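User: Could you walk me through two proteins back to back? I'd like the raw sequence and the structure tokens for each, with a short line separating them so I can tell where one ends and the next begins.

Assistant: Of course. Protein one, sequence then structure:
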Amino acid sequence: MLADETGRRYAVAFVGSDVTERRRREELSHLQASTDPLTGVANRRVVFEVLQEHLAAARGRGCGLLFCDVDRFKQVNDEHGHAAGDQLLVALAGRLGELAGPGDVVARLGGDEFVLLSPGSDQDSLTSLAERLDACMRAPVQTSAGALALRVSVGSALGRPGRTPTT
């Protein structure tokens, strides 16, 4: 508050600071810490955070997980080069993203391992999701080495409230 010599207030003074750039850097830092740089999907850290939430004993509703591993991935890299291998991984991430429903999380655990986490799933819905995944993997992927088959081994697990993410 600004006042004249009699003490009568006549203005309010504010000091401001533009934090736009700082906020942008913070958002970018968070994005980099939670996203796989090659595929753009969530990373392992995010999977465990989401699992923690959905497996919480008091408030979790459980979840289903599809674990996906690219078959003969080392052979693809050895025969066609790492660029073609990377293109397969990006395609797999994209196809998983197309299958994912609202609230589902697609993440790269590392290497050629991915997970599709589906909150509130039961065995029937998880089986149906795995069947749809199998069907969408049949189309070849166009890479710098030409069209390559994308073969994926899929496993599933159901997590119930009260379980730990590692279990």
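----
Protein two, same layout:
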Amino acid sequence: MDHIVTVQEAVTAFAEFMEPTDAELDAIELEMPAILADVDLMDAQIITMDRTPTELDVRRIRRARRRLLTALAGQAATVHRGGAA
């Protein structure tokens, strides 16, 4: 006969007392500009998926790419200086 048991870790894995650490919150804060810039780029690209991009669309995508690259460069510079692990 097989016994049915619960896996305690899986049940309590999402308990309220398990909050992100300060280091995890710092890492999220460091990555947030790049995440938001990436979302802007995807929005601009999605808009042009079902039509021919206008000059305004092309400029919007180009600006979004620049914002993403700037955010990634800033993130890399902060990590390189030792701002986050």
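Helices lie at 8-12, 22-47, 55-81.

Let me know if you want the two compared in more detail.
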